[in-house]
Amino acid sequence: MSEATTNPVCAACDEDLSAWIDGELAEWRAREIRLHVAACARCRPRVAALRNVDDALRGLASAPPTRSEATRLERLEARLLAARQDAREVGFRPESAAHAIPVVSAPPIGAPRRRPRRRWTPGLAGLAAVALAVVVVPVLLERAASRSPGPNGRDGTARDEAIVKESAARETAPSVAPALPPAAIPRPLSMTPGRFGASAPEDPAAGSGSETDAAVASPDFGRADLPLIERLDALEALPRIQELPPAERRRLAERLAAPDSAAASDRERLRDNILRWREMPAPQREALRQRWLEYQALPEPERARLLDTGSSLP
Amino acid sequence: MTQTGDEDVRLMLALRAGDAAAFDALFARWSGRLLRYLERIVRDAGCAEDLLQEVFLRVYRARERYEPDARFSTWLFTIATRLAWNELRRPRHQRSHDSIEEKSGTGALHLVAGQSAVDAVVDARRTSAHVERALRQLPERQRAALWLAAVEGLSYAEVAILLDTTDKSVKALVHRARTALAEQLDAAGRRGAPPGETS
Questions:
Q1: Are the C-beta atoms of residues B38 and B51 closer than 8 Å to each other?
Q2: Which CA distances in Å does A165 have to A121, A158, A233, A254, A297?
């Protein structure tokens, strides 16, 4: 953390600096930032450093094409021309064109085929899983983990949002956590249907009827995110989450999604607890799972009370 | 819509009407920028080239369905981004590539071509290499969001459409990415070595 962000005022300002640089803030907020930066000796260099990044990036982007790059583009253009001619002659099928590369819809080796989904919206079950994990797992952990300080490594507070978001992206959670390799973790299919005419979701330019493997087509998880995603096995270990009554799931989902500090605190706890869960010995995990089952066996009002108050299990 | 956007839309509509020259014009206008973007996302020059071809093939294939609902650039970068992410999930992409990194020094030379001081050339070249390396270390969504917002000038709303997320998420992605790069550049500058090599 930079020196500037240790001051609360500067920290609040810091969160908006990038958006300010990009001209994305509301006028009133932009004015606040402008005034603060002008007066703050700590934030000015910070802004300069951020702007230097942009300058450097633009430098990369605006460099004239090298000779080899120009040659490559010329070669590409020729290949495209050939592909287009093929299209006119035999009906356009890029896959069949001599120079066209294969359409990238094959799943990774070993990855299970998944049913193509035409549209993904944050599944209620997934969100409920997160909500439950946020509210209940801390309760359980506090009892079962004997308050052992887990290696929660607060090295990425900025990851909270990613964890929650990507947790919520799981439409389904198996009742028992399999040790899924990262590549096999279900991923939501990301799309913006109808945005560009009759475009298909995973590829705005593609036809709408093409089969697509969700695990391949979704851009939601990057390889760099996989270590993070792997930690979310903890959520999958929570059994039978989806068996909760829909009303309860909805209520919990709404609670988690609330843009208030309590929800932010829940997310923080979720992150910590997921990390603790991952480091927990198997017997301890099993004990925790049993507590979870006990919780599920409670009458609904009692569960609601626990969730609302954050109390421990009776 | 900007004048540039108008021209792209005009070309795309011309292509839809059967004007093959419009496709060449679009390629000439966008191929360089797209190639650089793809290179940063997939970190492999050869792969980026293949993807660029695929992007334009898909543009061509979609020409008859094209409707100017959104900026052409947003549409184009959406195709490119999703193809790139598909590619990144392929097992064969596990191998590392240094071709982009090698190029970064060349780009820096162009940056300061108008300057005569050797030091300036060296500094710019080093900074360029630092940025390139730091960029490679970012998660791909951060990398894409920052590039699209800072380099391509897309609004957060447009990037959000492109990445299929919210404006708020884009704001966070861009800020994290920019901050990480700034810190890496700062650290590398103080150490006098490229980021990622000194830890």
A1: yes
A2: 12, 12, 15, 14, 28
Nearest to A101 among B31, B53, B161 (CB): B53
Q: What is the pLDDT of residues A249-280, one digit of tens each?
A: 566 556 555 555 455 555 555 555 555 666 66
| Chain A environment of B27 (Cβ under 8 Å) | 77, 80
Give yes or no on whether B3-93 and B102-191 have one common fold: no
* Sequence spans of domains, chain B: 3-93, 102-191
How far apart CA B176 and CA A126 sit, in angstroms, is 26
What pLDDT, in 10s, does the model give residues A179-229? 333 333 233 222 222 222 222 334 444 433 332 232 222 223 333 333 333
Domain B3-93, CATH: 1.10.1740.10
- Chosen for mutation from A120, A196, A218, A223 (greatest number of chain B CBs closer than 10 Å) is A196
Which residues have a Cβ under 8 Å from the Cβ of A301 and sit 6 or more positions away?
Answer: none
Using a CB-CB cut-off of 8 Å, the residues of chain B touching A17 are 175
**Architecture of the domain defined by B102-191:** Orthogonal Bundle (1.10)
Instruction: Choose among B137, B86, B156, B171: nearest CA to A161.
Output: B171
